[in-house]
Amino acid sequence: MDPATAAVMVLLQCSPVEGSVCKPVDMAPTMYASLDLCMASLKDRLASAPNGETVGRCRLVDATVTDGLPVGYTRVFVTRGRGDDAITSSYVVQRQR
């Protein structure tokens, strides 16, 4: 996933007859640089389905799960100890300008 991705939109298509039966829209989740951009786009996407047959959500991307980082951040590794006793920790920190 692109490190600049901060939010993802996922859309579901729901049956007009059985509203509780929903399936993912046949497309990959759309990625955005911010949650605000995703929410604005989601509003437009849902407006194109006024009968409620499409539902969707925007969610923040968890960088610790995707191994991606937001713009302006970097990962720093700190190793304590030597040899077999060494322990390495990973930290996400804001880059200095």
Automatic annotation (TrEMBL):
Q: Determine the domain of life of the protein's source.
A: Bacteria
Q: Tell me what this protein is called.
A: Uncharacterized protein
